[in-house]
């Protein structure tokens, strides 16, 4: 495929340029229609490309940003004559071959593929002079927490930040400018009353509470609905669009169920969400905090100012006793404020604050992996106290896998001299365009969490949440019981077995074991006669406190009865939303169309590592909140048009499948017992098996991934 770049020929247009032939495609229309339901968003993105040259464009690539974890699940090309060519998900190599063969044969074709979990590319080829094609894609995403527990945040990235290092492919050309025609329509539906919708990014919006025109409401309560329109349509975005929705009961525990409508899929999907509200005692004794600060060239301007502001808040929020800390600055190289961490005192706080006040983005490139390696190697050995590593970065580097590998290795191999010593890694994404792939991946690998701060947002609450999470003891041995089945997330020595047959659920066709290099760092037996602590106490205020020979092609058995993601729950923190998905194989005869055989609740339980106190929560189950009936052909006026077909299609199955893919891309998966032992020592077999699992999930549910892509050929 020819390498492409961006060529700006005027202040109002953006061209995609084929560097091999000199051909151009003008991206001259972009329309986004968004449906926000509860804490999820369904986004339909329509883009119009025109060949402004005098020759046919053989192939040009447009690359843009998504939020990490977004599930791209539909892809469609509309030809100049109006013919719709639906994209089909195939194994990545097969899709690329089919696209290239179509281009060579002179056919109109398009290829949609994931470059990273937050970067997506569209290749368009064989467009005749003056011809226009439209590309429609749909994706689902989980909304982010915001400052308050009853708020969620939707972000539409303007672009993705230019990144340091080698891109995954040579197709990564960033095509967005501030002057492309753009429209955005958003419909919000909540189970509770919508209290407010704001736009911290300061884009001009028109807000209307109640039912949008042309939609058939599922109920008569207008207070549960709203619509938002981006009113300034003279050009594209100069920064990410951010919308914050506040509604009653957004922080309440709940579990939704969706039955697959196809008779070929005897499954239900469930989504459990809750914001833990319980008081845990702060970790007693000494604790170490290591701040790893990005001072690379990409952090210039507003980003380094945000870093300084966030660091001051974080430093002043540390416990005044029993605390040691240090600051590592990095770019091309990394340096430490002190040779070793020092005791927290007024003197060391002032020295650190003075150091922060003069920080500049003058360290060159963005070598995050080297900085993390320095942080981990600087820790005392053996580890005798809990450690929180807090990374502040825009994530502008491609080498995420090495960062994750260093983090996983540190958590699993550093020796411990105390039972309550462990490492957790937290990330603070800085500024517009911060890579959610980088920040989320490192936080997942480090059993921590990620927050994001941007210009114009209050950051004190987010920083306080990070410090509070770092000071909270681990909740371990976590089990979620779905319809009588339990999936144990407290894998001893990295091996986890899923339950077999239980009442009302068909048993697994094969036994499965969990094999992972993630170590469960703190385990505790539950003492007798200790009453469980509720995970959601309504009275609690969380503001208080070298490999073997090539492996044979592995056999892929049918999926287990219960597929849960994330399989390992290691990061439950008070005040921070926890989301768990499951796909459960159940005969259609056992759950009718009205869901009358629904379980009344699911249960999550675990143990506080430092005290042995059990924690648990029963969460009621209800059918998925059905969105508004769709209206076709919401047109942008001067851009591309789009049909909101997604309102009546799969929702939870797609989100659950994407979460399952993420687990497998992270190397977390339950393997058949027949190959579990060999997989622990044979990396090639492990990778081959995980790839097959990802391809099966991608092709079954129509999802792009590391190993699957969309291809549309005329």
Automatic annotation (TrEMBL):
Gene3D superfamilies on file: von Willebrand factor, type A domain (3.40.50.410)
InterPro entries per the UniProt record, alphabetical: VIT, VWF_A, vWFA_dom_sf
Disordered: region residues: 539-563
Domain VWFA: 288-452
Domain of life: Eukaryota
Pro residues bias (residue ranges): 547-561
PANTHER family in the cross-refs: VON WILLEBRAND FACTOR A DOMAIN-CONTAINING PROTEIN 5A
Protein name: von Willebrand factor type A domain-containing protein
